[in-house]
Amino acid sequence: MEYFLIFISAIFVNNIVLSQFLGICPFLGVSKKVGTAAGMGIAVTFVLTVSVIVTYALQIWVLNPYGLDYLQTILFILIIAGLVQMLEAVLKKVSPSLYQALGIFLPLITTNCCILGVSILVANGVYNAHGLEPTLLTGVFYAFATSLGFTLAIIIFAGIREQLSTMSLPKSMEGMAIAFITAGLLAMAFMGFSGVDHGIAVAAGL
Question: pTM, whole model, 2 decimals?
Fold first, then answer.
């Protein structure tokens, strides 16, 4: 049940984009088409899940024992950059169309604050594990659920923007203006999930 609570909390209650406001750049920049948004979501899911495993191991077995915590941010960025380069090479060969569609935002995953932020939260054990001990398993599960939350948010947002692109809007509302308003309304909609995880925990007697 605790893992289910982590899942619900990371995707809906504390959505990384709409609640914690991390990963805003790709959320706004790669959300004009559902297909491209889904591709970005899959890319973020892969990079985030794998990077959490590597960075957690680095934190526990290298940084903490040798007192090198001050190198955490720079080393985490280097690890994420390496994973992004690997993903970029694979996408360029397997799906050139998606590689072109993602454009500059693919290498920018390296500095995506969503990935770096979650990696640091998991490595430091300061995420909401809902009563479970912050371990590698719970951290990876939290990271995977968080990336699914990012994917869900960007796909919904892209679907709305696709519909808006077919409508006649006032000149002053075109482009990023309507995108910001839509993102705000979507974030307000997700606020409706506030407390759901707590309610489930109470109902389950946790």
Answer: 0.89
